[in-house]
Design a protein that fits this description.
Layout: E1 8-12, E2 32-39, E3 48-54, H1 55-61, H2 73-79, E4 80-81, H3 88-99, E5 137-139, E6 144-151, E7 154-163, E8 172-181, H4 182-190, H5 192-214, H6 224-232, E9 236-240, E10 245-252, E11 255-264, E12 270-279, H7 280-300
Parallel strand pairs: 1-4
Antiparallel strand pairs: 1-2, 2-3, 5-6, 6-7, 7-8, 9-10, 10-11, 11-12
GO cellular component, one term: nucleus
Domain PARP-type: 8-91
GO molecular function: DNA binding; transcription coactivator activity; zinc ion binding
């Protein structure tokens, strides 16, 4: 079984020597604490360093607090260790607190208090030496990775944006992404060729649009048949993974995007935040890693 270090941990403190990183006061034995874990790597004498906060201090003083805001219970299980060790009341309160949205961002000058967080847009792929991943993680580049994990008796394939905790160069999963169960993962595997064909259609459409602009043709001057042909072309190509989960292939600012997402039933299948948008290069990397991911799914399912 691969060794997994989750980025956050919640527990009841079992000693009275630790101090809260937020308020700097001592943490009493038995107190409920939340902490972030810097994974230093398997080659280090001490693999992990945890920064502890009083439970209330974490939500107000920790720079990573918004990583646990707006998070559903399933995703919490993926990124927080120790939830199952809480009392029913504390578990309910934690899930309820985490489900609330992040505080509205206020414009400010100077350096952000969250400057220690490295986001996907700020760093390149692992091949350039900017970050590392654990042995059970498949890097798709630009801090988007795939993790295979087991919760209770179920195996999941999680495709998610990762981030770097301060003091660690090993990337860890964030709340932004989606975890597919085994059936949904197998369905994604079965429609890979169709999705790949859709990316080529979208890329060809973008090339055609560029050529039209290069020739200086005014859309108003197009013939009736040409206008009808353009209007009939769908803005996205959809594939179904399950009742609420879909893959959509579309064009965004001259880039082809493969979006794997859950849709809300509150309105007529409105896009939800639970999902991940892959660039064409990341999608290609996912296809290349599919045999290795599937092998790990089978091994963890035994």
């Amino acid at each position: 079984m691969p060794f997994i270090v989750k980025p956050f941990v919640i527990k009841y403190m079992n000693d009275s020597d630790s101090r809260c990183k937020g308020c700097k006061s001592k943490i009493g034995s038995g107190s409920l604490v939340l902490g972030y874990v810097a994974d230093l790597g398997a080659d280090k004498r001490v693999r992990c360093q945890t920064s502890w906060f009083h439970y209330k201090c974490f939500w107000t003083l920790c720079v990573y607090k918004n990583h646990l805001r707006g998070v559903d219970p399933d995703t919490l299980q993926e990124i927080v260790f120790g939830i199952n060790g809480l009392s029913k009341a504390d578990k309910f309160n934690f899930q309820n607190e985490a489900s609330s949205p992040p505080a509205a961002k206020r414009r400010r000058t100077g350096k952000s208090s969250e400057s220690g967080i490295v986001a996907a847009k700020d760093v390149g792929s692992v091949e350039n030496g900017d970050y590392e991943v654990n042995e059970n993680v498949f890097d798709l580049s630009d801090l988007v990775c795939v993790t295979v994990y087991k919760h209770q008796t179920n195996v999941y394939v999680s495709i998610r944006e990762f981030f770097l905790l301060r003091g660690s160069n090993i990337a860890k999963p964030s709340k932004r992404g989606i975890a597919l169960n085994k059936l949904q993962w197998r369905e994604l595997c079965s429609i890979q060729n169709g999705i790949e064909a859709a990316t080529k259609i979208m890329a060809a459409r973008e090339q055609k649009s560029k050529e039209t602009k290069t020739k200086g043709r005014d859309p108003a001057a197009l013939g009736e048949g040409e206008r009808e042909e353009e209007e009939e072309e769908p803005g996205q190509i959809l594939f179904s993974l399950s009742w609420k989960r879909r893959v959509s292939v579309y064009q965004l600012q001259e880039e082809v995007v493969v979006d794997i997402r859950e849709y809300s039933e509150d309105r007529t299948f409105q896009r939800s935040p639970k999902g991940v948008a892959l660039t064409r290069n990341q999608w290609t990397k996912l296809r290349e890693e599919t045999p290795n991911i599937e092998a790990l799914v089978q091994r963890m399912g035994l």
